[in-house]
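ok so i was messing around last nite and threw this chain in just to see what happens. nothing serious, just curious
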Amino acid sequence: MQKQITAVEAWSSREWWDHLEIFVRDHIQQFVQRLLVEEVTLRLGRAKSVRRVAGSADTGAQARALHQRRWSSGDLGRAG
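result:
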């Protein structure tokens, strides 16, 4: 009489680790994504894709100032 092998017994150790790695990677990615969305929302004071109310903020002046400051100081291409 042959012993029946269950599905759990049929999986090798490598297969278990592969499935566990995929599971953990997916959950960590979802966790980090949620953290990033919360951080962006907190920093912007609104959801990432929501437009600002007209006249509520300077339209690009901060970005232009940063760009001009980097070009004039020679910091272009450096991290920071």
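not much to say yet. The helical segments are 7-10, 13-44, 61-73.
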